[in-house]
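queue> pop job 88
queue> type: inverse folding (structure -> sequence)
queue> payload:
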């Protein structure tokens, strides 16, 4: 049986206490234990931020799928998978969400998965708690609190590649009537 390393980290963090800023909190939704959902601090008007979760443990006998998140002042977060190739990072939408097997667990560290939020309308201030939801396939939207963190551990991603230009479709070569479009043909008098 695999025991996720972060379970130990989380247990240690929980042992330190709930009250002090920066400590881990845990929320429960159905049979899910949601360990320390957090979001990176952002000023009002910031173009983006991201949220992560130390761990979600599924104590139930049914699988569940994490699909999305919302946060007060940040709207809807889209779940992205971070992809590393040759030392370069990029991200792609996790279209099918993240499966949490029965009696299994998932981790969402910034290096692997992030909820990416667009325009921030309300300042997210470090060490405060902000209301939001996690959206699951079966439980649907579950109200939770994100702790706002100063975190800057997300890998720096390469700029998104420009919209690919579709290759020119080679059409059948048009047979041109001989002599018609030769530059001199119009004025040519024999
Ligand atoms: Cu927490």
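queue> result:
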């Amino acid at each position: 049986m695999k025991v996720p390393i972060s379970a130990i980290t989380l247990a240690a963090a929980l042992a330190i206490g709930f009250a002090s800023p920066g400590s881990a909190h845990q929320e429960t939704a159905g049979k899910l234990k949601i360990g320390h959902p957090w979001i990176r601090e952002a000023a009002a008007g910031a173009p983006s931020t991201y949220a992560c979760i130390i761990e979600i443990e599924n104590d139930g006998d049914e699988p569940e799928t994490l699909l999305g998140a919302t946060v007060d002042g940040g709207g809807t977060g889209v779940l992205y998978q971070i992809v590393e190739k040759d030392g370069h990072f990029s991200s792609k939408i996790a279209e099918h969400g993240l499966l949490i097997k029965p009696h299994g667990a998932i981790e969402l560290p910034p290096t692997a998965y992030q909820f990416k939020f667009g325009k921030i309308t309300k300042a997210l201030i470090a060490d405060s708690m902000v209301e939001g939801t996690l959206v699951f396939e079966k439980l649907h939207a579950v109200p939770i609190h994100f702790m706002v963190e100063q975190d800057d551990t997300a890998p720096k991603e390469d700029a998104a590649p420009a919209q690919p230009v579709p290759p020119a479709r080679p059409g059948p070569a048009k047979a041109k009537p001989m002599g018609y479009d030769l530059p001199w043909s119009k004025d040519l008098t024999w």
